[in-house]
Amino acid sequence: MIAPSKRVNIHTEKGIVKAIFGWPAIHTRQAKEETPSLKNICLDCGCSTKEEVEKMGIHVGCVVTFEDEFMILNKNRYCGRALDNRIGGFMIAEVVRLLGREKVKLPFGLYIVNSVQEEVGLRGAEMIAHKIKPDVAIVTDVCHDTGTPMIDKIEQGDIKSGDGPVLTYGPAVQNNLLKAIIKTAEKHKIPFQRAAASRATGTDTDAFAYSNEGVPSALISLPLRYMHTTVEMCRKEDVENSIRLIYESVLSLKSGQDFRYIS
Ligand SMILES: [Zn+2]
Q1: How far is the CA of 97 from the centre of ligand 1 (A)?
Q2: Phi, psi (degrees; rounded to nearest 5) at 90
Q3: 118 is catalytic
Q4: β-strand 15-21 against 232-235: which pairing, if any?
Q5: CA 81 to each of CA 12, 67, 70, 228, 233: distance values in angstroms, whole numbers, following the listed order
Q6: Catalytic residue among 118, 119, 186, 213
Q7: Dist. CA 201 → ligand 1 center (Å)
Q8: Could you tell me the distance, in angstroms and rounded to a whole number, from the CA of residue 214 to the centre of ligand 1?
Q9: How large is the greatest C-alpha to C-alpha distance in the chain, in angstroms?
Q10: In the chain, N or C: fewer CB atoms in 10 Å?
Q11: Could you give the CA distance from residue 217 to residue 138 in angstroms, rounded to a whole number?
């Protein structure tokens, strides 16, 4: 949907080649209301023949990325492409940095995982969950800030950027772990919001929760606007509060902590 008239980088062995997603004017299009899809979008790299294209190093399978870069709006909004799922990687890296800076000695082993392929079926999380066999998993991802036009708050929940990280209730979320995180947020006065998922959370939480005979898992999400576009946007203070909440939640965990409902 967002491809038409975007500039892109085609990544080739010979380096980056510039191209564009062309789109004909409305009065020349056969079907006036045609929407962009895989059936009609195309890349134009300014060549006339197949030989010219091949000479540039372009072949089927080359990775293409949008040109759009990161920017900050009004000093407090991060904006750019693929904040989903890169901002999570940034947040957990900051948690590691904090643990190092404060010289924290944890009474348990801690793995910090920035897993790949969440968008195509939680594949990275699936693989690493089996490798690590964790006792507990605290997962982070983005969720929808529903305060923009075209999103139904009744269906999607009332989530707002600036009101803090979002804690999800759902089948993949272990309630005693979630309660512990909520207690941590309250103790450290970290603002948070609540969301509910009736089935899948659609995040790596699902992959961890249902791995290895079940792993107590919880999800700390960052509200994000315009998801899956080149102008995804989140608020700086939500990022900071998410980092703090993940950090403090890790610190609050005890070695061998029992999360069972009945023990
Ligand atoms: Zn996504």
Answers
A1: 25
A2: -65, -45
A3: yes
A4: unpaired
A5: 21, 9, 7, 8, 9
A6: 118
A7: 12
A8: 24
A9: 71
A10: C
A11: 6
Residue with tokens 């102008």: 231
Q: Which two tokens stand for residue 165?
A: 């990280």
Report how far residue 170's alpha carbon sits from residue 152's, in angstroms, rounded to the nearest whole number.
20
Q: What is the pLDDT along the chain (263 residues), one digit of tens a residue?
A: 999 999 999 999 999 999 999 999 988 888 778 899 999 999 999 999 999 999 999 999 999 999 999 999 999 999 999 999 999 999 999 999 999 999 999 999 999 999 999 999 999 999 999 999 999 999 999 999 999 999 999 999 999 999 999 999 999 999 999 999 999 999 999 999 999 999 999 999 999 999 999 999 999 999 999 999 999 999 999 999 999 999 999 999 999 999 999 98
Q: Tell how strand 166-169 and strand 193-196 pair up.
A: parallel
Spacing, Cα 84 to ligand 1 middle (Å): 5
Residue 203 CA to ligand 1 center (angstroms) comes to 9
Residue 76, CB-side half-sphere exposure with 13 Å CA sphere: 5
